[in-house]
């Protein structure tokens, strides 16, 4: 059988399995393994011969995932996840929200703005959008409801702010992208700084406009906030600022690699939390337990993704698509638009890690054929995945918020709140697409 035919059948089978809610790791792993076996056993112009396929298939299934999992670069993921959970257990992330709330409370929509700022600070430590939305949802939404904020604004601002965990470095998705695209993780982190800040500012602007149009949705809190309280809250943020400067600053100036930065960041968070009396053995155990669970899940999916990459490479599908695009005369803008639509469509139904592992074997060769920077493309992909986290019908961050608020806020109200921010998302995405310097400028200094 023609390898290209096997590849098309395999890709369709994977999408069907995912639509049936089969776990992403199982979908990628099973389809890839069967597809690789068929390619080796049923060579073009020859009869099906299983004896030809057993040895190379098992060799590829054993060696490639093992080499991938044992790579030092992948160890960055559990270390950054552990650092994020330690920061949460230490209350460092809560400090950022409290300071932002005290400083912004008197502005129109100030508590919602503080929630987004808190999400930005949390994102700078955790690298996970879901963790960011979950943590800030428990902290910020009850606070906004207590001050009389509308349910849509309270939940929507946290759901959209949580997506910053994917874009603001360090980010687990950027690490996975860098590994599979064979790009510098340090450059990807730095490339995301300006787009991340631009997204945060866009969200703040949307909240300001929302409250100007509907002031009843965000009453100004009737509480006395002294200057000393503001300064104390700001001073309490010093620990998380130090951690961020050490991690991202160390990478930026070339003092250490992202892997070393993850280890140093986790160690620094642990030491600071213990010295300040915010971490005990129970909290450390809780952080370690959650980190092991999340890391294991990511690693299992990554193994399936690695097999899928090998399967697509054997089919030659990516090369055939690239050749077809080059010979058909399709414009660059049309190709990029199709890629954008592909990611937005998949983002409506699949989780971010699954989308990355499913699409990169096909999209990266296409982008490379046009001579685009894969660092720039990485920022575009992560921004699209960020949009997918709040896009109906299955916006993961929205359902995370729903699981936290329970019956207090309806799913429709949360999606209604998020809808206000879609125009900002389109604006930021367009800026990243048409002004590559937003992503690439800082990378020239790394």
UniProtKB/TrEMBL annotation:
It is found in: Cell inner membrane. It is a multi-pass membrane protein. Pfam families: DctM. GO terms for molecular function: transmembrane transporter activity. The chain crosses the membrane at residues 31-54, 66-88, 108-141, 153-179, 185-211, 237-255, 261-279, 291-313, 333-358, 370-394, 414-442. One of its GO terms (cellular component) is plasma membrane. The keyword Cytoplasm does not apply. Residues 11-438 form the TRAP C4-dicarboxylate transport system permease DctM subunit domain. InterPro entries: DctM (IPR010656), TRAP_DctM (IPR004681). Keywords: Cell inner membrane, Cell membrane, Membrane, Transmembrane, Transmembrane helix, Transport. PANTHER family: C4-DICARBOXYLATE TRAP TRANSPORTER LARGE PERMEASE PROTEIN DCTM (PTHR33362:SF5), SIALIC ACID TRAP TRANSPORTER PERMEASE PROTEIN SIAT-RELATED (PTHR33362). The complex comprises the extracytoplasmic solute receptor protein and the two transmembrane proteins. Part of the tripartite ATP-independent periplasmic (TRAP) transport system. Belongs to the TRAP transporter large permease family. This is TRAP transporter large permease protein. It comes from Sulfitobacter noctilucicola.
